[in-house]
Design a protein that fits this description.
Layout lengths: L3 E5 L3 H14 L4 E5 L2 H11 L3 E5 L7 H8 L9 E6 L4 H9 L4 E4 L4 H10 L9
Parallel strand pairs: 1-2, 1-3, 3-4, 4-5
Length: about 130
């Protein structure tokens, strides 16, 4: 069973970067992207990803709203959520704890970040530095 990761970020370049670095750490991981919260929620329902990476600040339905919505959907309430932010993480930590997010990650994602969330999802990364 493949590990699926969904990246929800309104910046296409950030989605592409996440796809590349996750694929670089482990090419067997299936990476999907959505550039808005609504599409992200639809894809979560369709894909049941193991991990969702959520940009905190997006127009319309932001990452925090997406996280709160996922926690109310049967079958999706236990997905590993990670907030992505280009800003200081301290303002996001409280909300992350409230919605049960695993962590708040700074953009850009690092290879270590990817290894950690794959390990937590039960999919140890294939590559090591």
């Amino acid at each position: 069973h493949e590990t699926r990761v969904l990246v929800i970020d309104d910046e296409p370049a950030d989605c592409r970067y996440a796809e590349l670095i996750i694929g670089n750490v482990d090419p067997e991981v299936e990476v999907y992207t959505a550039t808005n919260g609504s599409r992200g929620l639809l894809l979560c329902g369709r894909l049941s990803p193991a991990v969702v990476l959520l940009d905190v600040r997006m127009p319309g339905i932001n990452g925090i709203d997406v996280a709160r919505s996922l926690r109310r959907v049967e079958g999706l309430e236990n997905i590993d959520l990670y907030f992505l932010t280009g800003a200081d993480t301290t303002d996001v930590e409280d909300v992350a704890a409230e919605v049960g997010a695993a962590a708040v990650l700074r953009k850009p994602l690092s290879r270590d970040d990817v290894r950690r969330f794959l390990d937590r999802a039960g999919h140890p990364a294939l590559t090591a530095d």
